From TrEMBL:
Protein name (Swiss-Prot/TrEMBL): DNA polymerase III beta sliding clamp N-terminal domain-containing protein
Gene Ontology cellular component list: cytoplasm; DNA polymerase III complex
Organism of derivation: Brugia malayi
Main location per the UniProt record: cytoplasm
InterPro entries: DNA_clamp_sf (IPR046938), DNA_polIII_beta (IPR001001), DNA_polIII_beta_N (IPR022634), PyrdxlP-dep_Trfase (IPR015424), PyrdxlP-dep_Trfase_major (IPR015421)
Keywords: Cytoplasm, DNA replication, DNA-binding, DNA-directed DNA polymerase, Nucleotidyltransferase, Transferase
Length: 212
């Protein structure tokens, strides 16, 4: 793994959704952009996804986006992208990490999966699932209920939304609260018993699994 001043910078992501994204970028430019984009993100947000910044690396640049549902901020930076990909990470955590790094250096981002696989002796044909941040744990749970119908709020974590097969999406208002009329309409069209699972969000909302 490439290092910056002796510090490895790693971003965890969903193995079932993203490739092992790798890119290198100037630390000063990245910090300036993170400061601007993360300004729309509250440090404590009841809706987890709104505490994140979306990073997309492709075609020699990275694109950053954050929103509070009222305002969205987009920015693009030139970067040396060796592997394209997209990930969502905590905006303020990433900002704080980059801020502590030495100035006038490049920051190298890459997935730690292969290094960990080698360090603990896991065969290349076996999958490693990172569960500390729940992102990949959520994906694992979703795989276990893949045969059912899913009703999910529009602001659920991407690890749930992206792992669901043809989900019914419930729209939300500007406060992140689900549209109950839309939920009622969706449920009226579905048949079966309902199981209520709250996987990620602390308030709004939950995942519904309907058994056939």
């Amino acid at each position: 793994m490439s290092q910056v001043g002796g510090i490895d910078v790693e971003i965890k992501k969903q193995s079932s959704v993203c490739k092992q994204m790798r890119f290198s970028i100037d630390r000063t430019s990245l910090l300036s952009t993170l400061s601007r984009v993360s300004g729309v993100v509250e440090r404590r947000n009841a809706i987890d996804i709104l505490a994140c910044i979306n990073i997309k690396a492709q075609h020699g640049s990275i694109k950053l986006m954050a929103t509070d549902l009222d305002i969205s901020i987009f920015s693009s930076l030139a970067a040396d992208v060796s592997t394209e990909g997209e990930v969502k990470v905590s905006a303020h955590t990433l900002h704080d990490i980059v801020k502590k790094l030495p100035a006038d250096l490049d920051v190298n981002f890459e997935d730690a999966r292969d290094n960990i696989r080698s360090a603990i002796g896991v065969p290349s044909n076996k999958e490693i699932v990172f569960t500390s941040g729940a992102t990949e744990a959520n994906s694992l749970v979703m795989k276990g209920i893949a045969g059912f119908q899913h009703v999910i709020s529009a602001v659920e974590h991407p690890s749930i939304l992206n792992s669901a097969c043809n989900p019914h999406i419930i729209p939300v208002n500007q406060g992140g609260i689900v549209d109950l009329l839309a939920l009622e309409r969706i449920l009226s069209e579905l048949k079966g018993n309902m199981v209520w699972l709250q996987l990620q969000q602390s308030i709004s909302f939950f995942l519904l699994t309907l058994y056939p």
